[in-house]
TrEMBL record, chain A:
The gene is ugpC. The lineage of its organism: Bacteria, Pseudomonadati, Pseudomonadota, Alphaproteobacteria, Rhodospirillales. GO terms for molecular function: ABC-type maltose transporter activity; ATP binding; ATP hydrolysis activity. CDD domains: ABC_MalK_N. SMART domains: AAA. It comes from Azospirillum griseum. This is sn-glycerol-3-phosphate ABC transporter ATP-binding protein UgpC. It comes from the Bacteria. Pfam families: ABC_tran, TOBE_2. Keywords: ATP-binding, Nucleotide-binding, Transport. Residues 4-234 form the ABC transporter domain.
Length: 362, 288
């Protein structure tokens, strides 16, 4: 168990810079998730913490010790790979014991640790099998077991669930959450799946193009995204965006005008750079826009697509100046493609982003 | 039943018949000399052998006798067993040390990043086409200078490093997932340990291929051993066969018995490992 601290961490491959100076303080026992689109540098950052990738610049501190030049074992980190990377020629038992053997641990300790991991992960029956005789989920658990037996200070996971089918993914997600509760270790988890990020994380780090867009609890990111990138990345289905203009700045509160001139009073404040007539973007979560909700604002929409999800349906609609507006509605009421009506929303629930995509303060 | 009928169909189609005929012809051309060798070695009467050798009779076994074999084994001037032991020592050493050295070189090329790596790899691949014969004279001057003549190591040391083996290992290692190395590194394994405990145990097919290729090459090596050995003490089978053949008067039955015994170990080794060998050749073809 250990706090991890990143100060101005940078990475470049020759001339190509891929991580541009990341600062992050991870508390002891925290579950941190790195999330972001493909190629944003999640794996690179994780591998630098692991000790598999050299750190070009900045300081990495694990448990109070500068770790830049330490080996993975000295850092006390263990990693679960996306491909599992089990040793094909070794039994499950030997796979899990390999790290301890390398550390010259004595036999009774090894046996005891392997038994402990096997019990936690329900692998007792498979200890003498080779990885090729295991299912994907079992292999995944062996990979986790291999990390557990070393009693590391920090667990690192690189997209550990992406090779599992949907049902197993949910199961294993719960198991990882339970593991974190039981062991209490610091865990750093990489995924591009925002559902995994939301469900597992104490705090989420949203990365984009080698920079941090926002760090916060799942609720903070969902309710107060710092910019349009985070707003569109977190939440499923994604937030809908509507173009608008700043129509008035009465008493510090902004009034916006939609494409058709319709005024929308908000409780957002202007930032220093905000000027009358500036283009802005309104962001609306699917659950905040409804055919006949309680909201005071109205938006004329036309339904373009309908998706049935059992307990609810998603309506995809167009509005003046915007396409692909998403509404989440309970089952029941019949809608048809082509229906037109005024959708309602609560102006205090919306998000406003300025021309550069930065959220305006509330 | 569909697969069976389509199979019968294919067996009787003209194209199939032609293929089989061609393969049969090729097989007879290759097997013919072997049959003559075996048949002749079992005929005790030298005069009879010389008469038979001109025609079809060479293929037809007469009364079977092991007389030729007994005489070859009893010959003190041309000690078959000595030659055999020499060849075994040389080939086993080259193959054994070659597997270690060449795989280590290939592992570095496949996994480590260092300046000049690409150039080094290109040079090694280029070396594959350089025949040993063209290097023989300068090499001879070198070993002579070192005072290595007439020994085992003069036949072993120059041939341990083997460009084609390095290349085969390199290709195989390049396809092994890098995650395995990294997982082992996370587990605290050193580079040496990863190579030895993770990579090599997963490399049985390529080890078998390399062992067979390098083994066959040096089982039949002739020019170099002829140049560097004087007496029978360190002389291998390949040179022994030629020397035996050169004796006058020529005892064809014994020559054939000698040649038979010299080929037998290779044939046995090949039959034992051929499944692996074919597997890895096919495997590298498909994956490559
Ligand atoms: N060895 C390398 N040499 C050059 N560039 C590299 C190297 N490894 C990674 N990169 C680049 O670094 C960037 C970040 O890669 P990284 O693998 O960390 O992305 P990621 O966020 O994990 O993406 P994914 O979700 O697809 O796994 C990418 O643009 C990639 O092209
Ligand atoms: Mg990645």
């Amino acid at each position: 168990m250990a706090p991890v601290s990143l100060r101005q961490i940078r990475k470049s491959y020759h001339e190509l810079s891929v991580i541009h100076g990341i600062d992050l303080e991870i508390a002891d026992g925290e579950f941190i998730v790195f999330v972001g689109p493909s190629g944003c540098g999640k794996s690179t950052l994780l591998r630098m913490i692991a000790g598999l990738e050299e750190i070009t610049g900045g300081d990495l501190t694990i448990d109070g010790v500068r770790a830049n030049d330490q080996s993975p074992v000295e850092r006390g980190v263990a990693m679960v790979f996306q491909s599992y990377a089990l040793y094909p020629h070794m039994t499950v038992r030997d796979n899990m014991a390999f790290g301890l053997k390398m550390a010259k641990a004595d036999r009774t300790l090894i046996a005891q640790r392997v038994a402990e991991a096997a019990r936690i992960l329900h692998l007792e029956r498979y200890l003498d099998r080779r990885p090729s005789a295991l299912s994907g989920g079992q292999r995944q658990r062996v990979a986790i077991g291999r990390a557990i037996v070393r009693h590391p200070k920090v667990f690192l996971f690189d997209e550990p669930l992406s090779n599992l089918d949907a049902a197993l993914r949910v199961n294993t997600r719960l198991e990882i959450a339970r593991l974190h509760r039981d062991l209490g270790n610091t865990m750093i988890y990489v995924t591009h799946d925002q559902v995994e990020a939301m469900t597992l994380a104490d705090r989420i780090v949203v990365l984009n193009g080698g920079r941090v867009e926002q760090v916060g609890t799942p609720a903070e990111l969902y309710e107060r995204p710092a910019n349009r990138f985070v707003a569109s990345f977190i939440g499923s289905p994604a937030m809908s965006f509507l173009p608008a203009q700043i129509a008035a700045l009465d008493g510090g509160r902004l009034t916006l005008a939609l494409a058709d001139g319709r005024p929308i009073p908000t409780h957002h404040r202007a930032s220093e750079a905000t000027r009358l007539g500036d283009p802005v973007t309104i962001g609306l979560r699917p659950e905040h826009l409804a055919p006949d909700g309680p909201g005071s604002a109205a938006l004329p929409v036309e339904i373009q697509d309908i998706e049935y999800h059992g307990d609810r349906r998603f309506l995809y609609a167009s509005a003046p100046g915007a396409n692909g507006l998403t509404m989440a509605i309970p089952g029941g009421r019949p809608f048809q493609v082509g229906d037109r009506f005024d959708a309602r929303f609560d102006p205090t629930a919306l998000h406003v982003f300025d021309g550069a995509g930065v959220a305006l303060p509330v | 039943m569909a697969p069976v009928s389509s199979r019968t169909l294919r067996l009787t189609s003209p194209a199939t018949l032609l293929t089989y005929a061609a393969m049969l012809a090729a097989a007879s051309i290759m097997l013919g000399p072997l049959v003559v060798m075996l048949v002749t070695s079992l005929k005790p009467d030298t005069l009879q052998i010389v008469q038979d050798l001109g025609g079809v009779a060479a293929f037809i076994p007469g009364p079977v006798s092991l007389e030729n074999y007994k005489r070859v084994l009893a010959d003190q001037q041309m000690p078959f067993l000595r030659f055999l032991v020499n060849t075994l020592v040389v080939v086993v050493s080259i193959v054994g040390l070659g597997i270690i050295v060449n795989s280590m070189a290939a592992y570095c090329l496949a996994r480590r990043r260092f300046r000049g790596r690409d150039l080094l790899l290109a040079v090694i691949i280029a070396l594959i086409i350089v025949p040993v014969e063209s290097l023989a004279v300068p090499l001879l001057m070198m070993v002579n200078h070192l005072g290595w003549m007439d020994s085992y190591h003069v036949q072993i040391v120059p041939f341990i490093a083997h460009p084609f083996s390095i290349f085969l290992f390199y290709q195989y290692f390049a396809k092994l997932p890098k995650d395995l190395d990294e997982a082992a590194a996370m587990d605290g394994a050193s580079v040496w340990r990863i190579y030895w405990s993770i990579i090599m145990p997963l490399s049985a097919p390529v080890i078998a291929t390399v062992a067979i290729l390098q083994g066959l090459e040096f089982w039949s090596a002739y020019l170099w051993p002829l140049m560097v050995t004087r007496g029978v003490e360190f002389r291998p089978l390949s040179v022994g066969v030629a020397q035996f053949f050169g004796q006058e008067p020529r005892q064809w039955g014994e020559v054939m018995a000698f040649a038979n015994m010299a080929s037998l170990p290779v044939i046995i080794a090949y039959l034992t490992f051929q499944r692996w060998f074919i597997q890895s050749v096919v495997g590298s073809a498909v994956k490559g």
